[in-house]
Design goal:
Helix content: 25-40%
Largest sheet: 5 strands, mixed
Order of helices and strands: HHHEEEEEEHEEEE
Radius of gyration: 41 Å
Shape: elongated
Structural class: alpha+beta
Distance between the termini: 109 Å
Length: 197
């Protein structure tokens, strides 16, 4: 009869047993979860957080640097009638044989003085051979070459030039330039420096 009494459990009793078992299982799960529940900020690894902060700060500095950086010709504003100079003003890694170059506005000419040494200037028109042969080279003297068509002044240190090479350190270029029609009396001066390594 005992076996029969076990089999005679009603369907409603089975549902209530199942419901009570479910609640006890849920309660036990809650208890385990309640012990493990920790605020999110305590679950973070301290080393990872510090590394992420350093990376974020580094990226912020790089981004700011890109926003405020000024290079090349924008770094040192040039006078109105000077379009470009090389080496760029305040260049820090020029070579000892670097070329000194100035691009002036149309109709301007000028002279260069480097480290207090006046470099003679000659126009390329005066140096050209009247009837050159095809492929014939023109030997240029070791002076500042003025190209009137481009309004450029170019000096390259070389053997026999007033400056054969630039030594290490800071060098100063003083350029006097003027409008050809106005004459040399209207000359202006622009000075820049560069560093040879």
């Amino acid at each position: 009869m005992d076996n029969g009494s076990e089999d005679t459990i009603s369907e409603s009793d089975r549902d209530s047993i199942r419901d009570s078992d479910r609640e006890s299982i849920r309660d036990s799960d809650r208890g385990v979860d309640a012990d493990l529940e920790v605020p999110w900020w305590r679950r973070l690894d301290r080393g990872t957080v510090i590394a992420c902060l350093f990376v974020a700060i580094g990226l912020a500095f790089v981004f700011r640097g890109l926003l405020v950086s000024v290079t090349g010709d924008d770094r040192s504003p040039l006078p109105a009638n000077v379009e470009q100079v090389l080496p760029v003003p305040e260049a820090v890694q020029a070579l000892s044989q670097t070329q000194v170059f100035a691009d002036l506005a149309e109709g301007f000419t000028g002279t260069l003085s480097i480290d207090g040494i006046d470099i003679p200037t000659e126009s390329i028109r005066d140096l050209a051979t009247p009837n050159p042969q095809p492929g014939q080279q023109t030997d240029l003297p070791a002076v500042t070459i003025f190209e009137p068509g481009n309004a450029t002044l170019t000096f390259t240190p070389s053997s026999g030039a007033p400056i054969e090479s630039f030594g290490e350190g800071v060098h100063t270029v003083v350029m006097r330039y003027w409008n050809v029609e106005a004459g040399e009396n209207s000359a202006r001066v622009y000075t820049w420096t560069f560093n040879v390594v």
